[in-house]
Write a structure and sequence with these properties.
This protein has 16 helices and 29 strands. With about 625 residues, the protein is an alpha/beta fold. It folds into three domains: about 240 residues, Alpha/Beta hydrolase fold, catalytic domain (Rossmann fold, 3-Layer(aba) Sandwich); about 90 residues, Immunoglobulins (Immunoglobulin-like), CATH 2.60.40.10; about 210 residues, Alpha/Beta hydrolase fold, catalytic domain (Rossmann fold), CATH 3.40.50. It has an eight-stranded mixed β-sheet with strand order 3-4-6-5-7-8-9-10, with helices on both faces. An eight-stranded mixed β-sheet has the order 22-23-25-24-26-27-28-29, with helices on both faces. Strand 16 and strand 17 form a beta hairpin. It starts with a strand and ends in a 7-residue tail after the last helix.
Length: about 625
């Protein structure tokens, strides 16, 4: 098998090229060449005669028909900018000689549609900037009809492409995606801020999926305008619009743009395989969980991850993402690896240097697995519910309180909903518990609980509520270690005599059972089962995420089942919503939960059950909160 960027190709199949080779832009005197000519056309849009440069391919024959690429310049250029800085005719001549592109006409117009269209004076003047938008009419109504009359061209959208650099890249996206009846091939190299926001750029993603042959977006990783490309890519990714998002080492210059033309032109006017679009890139985007200015880890368009670690003295370096990946060392002491596709959402990981697990200094750290660990956020098309949006936001308050139950100072994180400060309303409270090896920071740092509630409340899908995120680690047990009924009893005591009194004395809360809910994940799910069921007079809503009494620990589970059997009527009467969820069969708690539910059925305990594939992970628990919160405080 051959391999490229992690993709395995069948034997005998030539791997595709993802970067221009040396000499791609150098003159080769031994091959046929195309011709460049300057043309003038009447623009009724502008009310003047305008100029463009036109490239015709080697062996151009007026008796044949050709497809056309309209190639646009940047804000400081004109119809000669590509010729002066990008050598497109040389790049294309060389590609023709190698049989890598279809014969095509390339039109390089002046994209500044105004009577004085020279790149002189203040190129950022409002009228000159506006002229780039006005060029859309000139292009569609004047230039394209002129070209298709003067040259032997195909006149359908499948044989028409548009691409450009910088300001021209923004034009290409705006005009190409805004006129899918005119263009089937659209390319943007380092698109500038004139690019429309994604929702305006592509309001109908279904139409784009049907009509686009190729949408190409490329940029240098050190280009200060890269955010314009990334936001467009993010929107396309979320809406499943096939496209190539190509990031390479570089800045805002012709080195990047020439490579963009070299790559883009090879796709045009021939069949394309959209299934491998995500492999066409050199670099990925830095993960949003990276520390400030850290370039690695990088996430590739298909959610594989590139790690690059500086450890010149190490003899072995690995990344542990549930599966261990061996890194390869280069001559400068940098270790690299590209992983398989990683699960969407939040993932813990560890850096193993000579067998010692440490946090990656390039990533944010999170308390998990009983220690500070690295975490990486992988893009998720289904993750809009926990995205940071322009909606009213609540606040996270870090509270220290002295607990009489433990005779010690403890900490809890409290979410108050938007408008809390200025309201006289009494709010219901969800007491929300983390898992083993985690703490009170988990539901905000890893779980995005505040953003989930902000978005639900903004859409009127959940009642405004307070969320108290408690530290479920009691004494020195450190999570599930030594977990037994004594530890559960200690937590129940802390909840009833420490946490709830503190919340109800310091926040504007409604102090009755119908306005209290208790939920938790994994270990926190067991704490919820214990404290919630035994105190059904205190809580009307219970949520159990990825948890269940351990089938192999009857000493712990049997007394709980006996209590439920003897109090089934009271539990059903008091608990308005008993919600149990799992991360599918791959969830490590799945079998325990399945056995527990069969016991509930046997005892007549009323509950609702939900599954969301993803295993025993934070992406599942985020979704659990998203589903559970709207059920609360409505009965």
């Amino acid at each position: 098998m051959l391999s490229l960027l992690g993709y395995k190709l069948s034997e005998g199949k030539v791997p595709f090229i993802v970067q221009a080779p040396l000499g791609f832009d150098q003159i080769n005197t031994t091959i046929p060449t195309g011709k460049i000519e300057s043309i003038s056309y009447e623009s009724k849009t502008v009310g003047s005669i305008r100029k463009a440069a036109v490239y015709t391919p080697p062996g151009f024959n007026k008796k044949k028909k050709y497809p056309v690429l309209y190639l646009l310049h940047g804000i400081g250029g004109d119809e000669k900018e590509w010729l002066n800085g990008g050598s497109p005719q040389i790049i294309l001549d060389n590609l023709y000689a190698e049989g890598k592109i279809e014969p095509m006409i390339v039109v390089m117009p002046n994209g500044r549609a105004m009577k004085d269209d020279s790149a002189t004076g203040n190129i950022m003047a409002p009228d000159k900037v506006q002229a780039f938008a006005a060029f859309e009419k000139d292009l569609l109504n004047d230039l394209i009809p002129f070209i298709e009359k003067k040259y032997p061209t195909y006149k359908d959208r499948e044989h028409r492409a548009i691409a450009g650099l910088s300001m021209g890249g923004g034009q290409s996206l705006n005009f190409g995606l805004g006129n899918l009846d005119k263009f089937a091939w659209v390319g943007a190299f380092s698109a500038a801020p004139n690019t429309k926001v994604p929702q305006e750029l592509l309001p109908n993603s279904e139409e784009a999926k049907k009509k686009l042959k190729l949408l190409w977006i490329s940029c240098g990783d050190n280009d200060w305008l890269i955010e314009n490309s990334k936001r467009t890519h993010d929107y396309l990714y979320k809406n499943d619009v096939p496209h190539i998002y190509y990031i390479e080492p570089g800045v805002h210059d012709f080195k990047v743009w020439k490579n963009g033309l070299y790559m883009f032109s090879q796709f045009l006017f021939k069949p394309v395989d959209q299934s491998v679009f995500s492999a066409y890139t050199i670099l990925g985007n830095p993960a949003q969980t990276n520390i400030r200015n850290a370039k690695y880890p990088q996430i590739l368009p298909d959610n594989r991850v590139i790690f690059k670690i500086a450890a010149p003295q190490a003899s072995k370096v690995q990344i542990d993402l549930g599966r261990k990946y061996d890194l390869t060392r280069d001559s400068e002491g940098f270790w690299t690896v590209t992983t398989d596709v990683i699960n969407k959402g939040f993932n813990y990981y560890s850096l193993l240097i000579d067998g010692v697990a440490v946090a990656d200094p390039a990533s944010q750290t999170f308390y998990g697995m009983g220690r500070m660990a690295s975490g990486i956020e992988i893009p998720n098309k289904e993750g809009d519910f926990y995205a940071l949006k322009e909606v009213p936001h609540g606040e996270i308050r870090i509270n220290n309180y002295f607990s009489k139950a433990t005779n010690s100072w403890r900490e809890m994180y409290v979410y108050t909903p938007p408008g809390y400060e200025n309201s006289t309303e009494k709010y219901p409270v969800l007491y929300l518990l983390h898992g083993g090896g985690e703490d009170q920071t988990g539901w905000t740092a890893q779980g995005k609980a505040n953003l989930i509630l902000d978005n639900l409340i903004a859409e009127n899908k959940a009642k405004p509520m307070i969320i108290a995120m408690l530290d479920g680690n009691m004494g020195n047990t450190g999570g599930i270690a030594g977990f037994n009924e004594s530890a559960l009893k200690a937590f129940e005591n802390e909840l009833k005599t420490g946490a709830i009194p503190f919340v109800e004395n310091h926040f504007k809360t409604a102090k009755d059972s119908k306005n209290r809910a208790l939920a938790g994940l994994s270990m926190g799910g067991l704490q919820t089962l214990y404290a919630g069921v035994k105190n059904s007079d205190l809580f009307s809503y219970i949520g159990v995420f990825s948890s269940g009494w351990w089938a192999n620990n009857t000493t712990l589970s049997e007394p709980q089942y006996e209590f439920m059997k003897n109090n089934a009527q009271k539990i059903n009467s008091n608990i308005k919503e008993f919600w149990i969820s799992m991360g599918g069969k791959e969830d490590i708690a799945f079998e325990n939960c399945k056995i527990m539910r069969s016991k509930f059925d046997q005892f007549g305990i009323k509950y609702k059950y939900s599954e969301y594939s993803g295993g025993h992970t934070w992406p599942v628990w985020r979704h659990d909160l998203f589903m559970f919160a709207p059920l609360l405080f409505n009965k």
